[in-house]
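chain below, 95 aa
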Amino acid sequence: MNASPTLLHDPTSETASALRPRRSPPPSLDGRTVALFDIGKARADEFLDYLQPRLRARGIATARFAKPTNAKPATPAIVGDIAEGADVVVEALAD
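prediction:
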């Protein structure tokens, strides 16, 4: 469907997860759902509001998730909802 491949980047400095092995990014976002995750930082929602229609215009399904505050880790329920409802996550950071 997409003429050009989508290049995915991991902005973290983490080289290996302490919880589980890292997964390779999918070769394409075609047929996948991208979770747009607002961690509660200022203006993170603006970034996701900008990104969401651009992904959808390329035929990529999206689902929105949010933490109630940036001061605490995501609850297991939120993490579970993301794991069940999406294949790839874009986490909106701001500062």
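The chain is about 25% helix and 20% strand. Strands lie at 33-38, 61-66, 88-92.
thats it, cya
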